Amino acid sequence: MVGKSYSMTSWDLDLDGATPVTPDALTRLTAALEADLQETNRAIVARMESPVALIPQLAAHLVAAGGKRLRPLLTLASARLCGYRGDRHVQLAACVEFIHTATLLHDDVVDESILRRGHASANAVFGNKASVLVGDFLFARAFQLMVADGSLDVLRILSSAAATIAEGEVLQLTTQNDVATTEQRYFDVIRGKTAALFAAACEVGGVIADRPAAECAALARFGMDLGMAFQLVDDALDYSADVSELGKTIGDDFREGKLTYPVLIAIADGDAAETEFWNRSIGEGEQSDSDLATALALIDRHDAINRTVKRAQGFTETAIEALSIFPPSDLRDTMQDVASYTTARRF
After folding, report:
1. How many CB atoms lie within 10 A of CB 10?
2. Is the pLDDT of residue 293 over 50?
3. Per the domain annotation, does 9 fall within a domain?
4. CB within 10 Å: which end of the chain, N or C, has fewer?
């Protein structure tokens, strides 16, 4: 799997005979929600305005960096799937994007990242102080939108997600360079830092449509498992072939000493010499120029990329199953296809 090269229009997944999946699923979801997404983008831009000039400047830098708006798309899609016909979902989709963007700003400072989606990160351009403070501003904007919505259930779901994200990030910080990190600990990290917002983004769509609790729970499960799969694949991509088109640099997680799933597999299955390598390069942070190549070779030896993607597939399958509570429709099918596409993003 590592080393394959695919065009932007012909990505597929060839894992134990799995059905080929193309990025058309995400394209179709975006097209189906185009009007709602445009309104959401307008709401995002409007809420980023401030008399403090640095805030809209930094915000414009983030907008220019691109992104597929996947999380707000999930809010819009979930609301429409539940038959919602108002406009609350647009403001809540913007709220979800603000929470996500705020965490990215803070993450890039913590990780000392210089790139975001293939462009210079905000902290590289504007400095760490500005990035942290504008991240705080976006969190505040998100909470203003929650309050303006007027639903205590929405406020509970999104504010809980914001707190869980922070907990997940702190938990990841405590596991950094810790080669004794368990699989359960890893899943606790990604459930908090990534999947919680996916779950909340989907659940609020059902809540504002006044759908039964079972349907709202199904949407939350869809988002949670989609988010788990998304992060597993993201972690696999860090040790995969050319990922520059995705705005990633191969080996970033390795250099930062992050214990991600491919590394956990390699550590668990490695011999004494391999364990010594991981202890030195990640546990102690002593890395030479050749260590990334060694790490890639060990990950390849233990088939860790394939095994990580297979684990992600398990989450996509349960995500797809969660939506079976809803009657068949083009929108439901497209959301399920997006889940399938998650594990085929670049392999």
Report:
1. 9
2. yes
3. no
4. N
Domains: count for the chain: 1
CA distance linking residue 303 with residue 270, whole number of Å: 12
Whether this model's pTM surpasses 0.70: yes
Residue 5 belongs to a domain: no
Distance CA 25, CA 15 (A): 19
Find the mean pLDDT for residues 261-287.
96
Provide the β-strand partners of residue 119: 116
Residue 17 lies in a domain: no
Angle at 152 between CA 149 and CA 154, to 5 degrees: 60
Q: Say what the pLDDT of residue 65 is.
A: 63
Confidence of residue 6 (pLDDT cuts 50, 70, 90): very low
Query: What pLDDT does 2 receive?
Result: 32
Cβ atoms of 340 and 320 within 8 Å: the answer is yes
Give start and end residues of each alpha helix (H) in the chain.
24-32, 34-47, 54-64, 70-81, 88-111, 122-126, 128-149, 152-175, 183-190, 196-208, 213-237, 252-255, 261-269, 272-278, 291-301, 304-322, 330-342
**Residue 115 region, left (φ>0) first, then alpha (ψ -120 to 50), else beta?**
beta
Q: How far apart are CA 272 and CA 270, in angstroms?
A: 7
In a domain, 18, yes or no: no
Range of the domain at 305: 24-342
Tens of pLDDT along 95-108? Answer: 999 999 999 888 88
User: Please, are residues 309 and 4 in contact by the beta-carbon 8 Å criterion?
Assistant: no
Separation between Cα atoms, residue 130 and residue 307, nearest integer Å: 40
Residue 116 DSSP SS3: strand
CATH number at residue 217: 1.10.600.10
